[in-house]
Specification:
globular; 51% helix; three-stranded mixed beta sheet; alpha/beta
Length: 304
């Protein structure tokens, strides 16, 4: 499809660099965010903006959304006390949602889009702000095959890997499964580094072993929770995100909703969800999720 103008709604930590990469690749982008500071940051980055979401969508060929939750997406699509995005979009507009939301919400959103005569792709991402800036995100995609092919050129600008997981909602299903693994593995990695400290190991020595042994994982080799071994990890920036603790708590909450609806006998996922809820509520909301190590270390301080 001719991408024409892309309405990019949601210009936060992830959306801003994603939109910037599209502009740099020569695409016509009209951005908007409900947070004025985000709009100002987009303008400073050379991203054209609109005065409202509805104005951004009018005449756009693609509407790309990066929202904090599923209810915001559904409300934006349907409209609250007025017309919604689906009402002002031209016939056959492609709605490409890159938010991370409940699987059921994603399927409901896709149903609304199709019923209104448009096209729908859900494509949540993994890779954090670093991946968004570098254009190396992984997109987990739920869509009809022909709709995926229509947006593939856009996704390839913003991402390094595209995985077609199935029909509408399948991208969100893959995302919640992936992030449940990530949350559990970051807690495990952090506990191991704190244990190593107690046992007299240097961070570098433990990293050199784990990064090439059976404990190897993304939480160690890319987002290492201690400063030093991986210079680009948030631990070297006092745990500035990155992927914030509040977002990990949110994503694990989505995973718990899926576990409850499917009856899976999960134990580690729910435990990780409780740990990250506590981290979020006790000051970790705005810190990178790898900062969970500081909580583990503080709780271990009195144990020799």
């Amino acid at each position: 499809m001719d991408s024409g103008t892309i309405a990019f709604l949601g210009l936060g930590h992830m959306g801003l660099p994603m939109a910037g990469n599209l502009v740099a690749a020569g695409y016509s982008v009209r951005g908007f965010d409900v947070v004025p500071a985000a709009v100002e940051a987009a303008q400073a980055a050379g991203i054209p903006t609109a005065a409202s979401a509805l104005e951004a969508v009018k005449g756009a060929h693609v509407v790309l959304t990066m929202f904090p939750g599923g209810q915001q997406l559904l409300d934006a699509y349907r409209g609250v006390d007025g017309p919604g995005l689906l009402d002002v979009a031209g016939p056959g507009t492609m709605f490409l949602d890159c938010s991370t939301i409940n699987v059921d919400e994603a399927r409901e959103a896709a149903g609304l889009v199709v019923e209104a005569g448009h096209r729908s792709v859900d494509a949540p991402v993994s890779g954090g702000v670093v991946g968004a800036e570098a254009g190396t995100l992984t997109f987990m995609i739920g869509a009809l095959a022909e709709d995926l092919e229509a947006v593939r050129p856009l996704l390839e600008v913003m991402g390094g890997k595209l995985v077609h997981c199935g029909d509408h909602g399948a991208g969100q299903a893959a995302k919640v499964c992936n992030n449940m693994i990530l949350g559990v593995s970051m807690i495990a990695a952090s506990e191991a580094f704190v244990l190593g400290e107690k046992l007299g190991l240097t961070h570098q020595a433990l990293y050199d072993v784990v990064s090439t042994a059976s404990g190897q994982c993304w939480a160690v080799t890319t987002n290492c929770p201690v400063p030093g071994p991986v210079p680009a990890s948030p631990a070297n920036r006092d745990y500035q995100p990155g992927f914030a603790g509040a977002l990990m708590a949110k994503d694990l909450g989505l995973a718990m909703n899926a576990i409850e609806s499917t009856g899976v006998a999960a134990e580690l996922g729910p435990m990780a969800a409780r740990i990250y809820e506590r981290f979020r509520d006790e000051g970790g909301a705005g810190r990178d999720f790898s900062g969970i190590i500081t909580d583990i270390r503080d709780r271990s301080a009195g144990v020799d």
